[in-house]
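Summary for the steering committee. One of the milestones for this cycle was to obtain a three-dimensional model of the protein with zinc ion bound, which we needed before selecting residues for the alanine scan. The sequence and ligand used are listed below.
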Amino acid sequence: MKRFVVASGMVLTLAACGGAQTQRLNIDPTAVAEEQYKQMAFAVEYQLKSQQRLERISYKILKANAEICGPRVIYRGGFNFSALSNFDKNIQPVLVDVMKLDANDRLTVFNIIKGSAADQAGLKNGDVITKIDGQLVGTGKRGRAAFDEYLEKVMTNGSGQPISLTVLRDGQAMDISFSGDLVCRSTISMAESDAVNAYTNGENVFVTRGMMRFVDNDDELAIVLGHEFGHNLMSHVEKTKNNAMGGYVIGGIVDALLGTGSVFANEGAKGAAQAYSVEFEQEADYVGMYMMARAGYDYDNAAYFWRKMGVNNTQSITFSGSHPTSAERFLGLEKIADEIEAKQQNGQVLVPNLKSK
Ligand SMILES: [Zn+2]
């Protein structure tokens, strides 16, 4: 106790005078610039790693479920590409180092998804794309936009025919051809927010940085992604729009996971849309767990995620708003896990049961 008094007395003395009293550290400005560069590089590496993780798990789930996604499917190669001038000038030198983007603003491949068509065909991160199907690929923003458009037409929205890329790797030109993977039509992005949240607008799914930190392993991230893809597969956003009468615009389904979560554009539309939201949440949990199980993720411990959620947000344990409570979701997922396990043991196909009419 005595020690504490002495310590707080010291704080008071220091606080009484303006400015720092201890000797000033002499920091070399060149060293500061070097450290700034290093920290920017770490930040880019971290961002890339999170993005890779998110895309790898999403791709695996979307690919494993193409069969049950019906007409909501597209072809994808499983690689990203960009040119240096697509990014802010300050960060460009770091991107040449860390992402291996071409210093001459030519299109460069990055974030190839493991196990994807591009990966299996031998495309590598850092490959510089010079031609697609024999046509020259431009540089910079315009080159990227034109390449994107071509790829969308031929691969993404095409009928599965192969594309051929000419790439430069360590100065050597080589041709790489592949057909896209058939996957469920959903995209994934990371949202720059620390809230533990996920969101879908019916096609594009966003997972927050806070959620990326909250999940302990890939299986837990697969629960979140399966749930959002489940909303998309079951057309919940479209149905929500139809249920909300009077032409109100509703942005999508926000899984704020707080119980009160949904962010609707209009109070009037809220009531009509929310009438179905608990049902939709349960359906997304149901379909989502099938989706993660079909992709080979461990669905057995999935329910536990909702106990963690209850700890993270104690309000969600008992408060039921537009979403079921975390307690209901835990029990629901346990039931779904039992159903899936029984099907696996009996050698049945893993397809969600539809209501008998
Ligand atoms: Zn949801």
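Key point for the committee: The pocket of zinc ion is lined by residues 227, 231, 253, 255, 281, 284 (CB under 6 Å).
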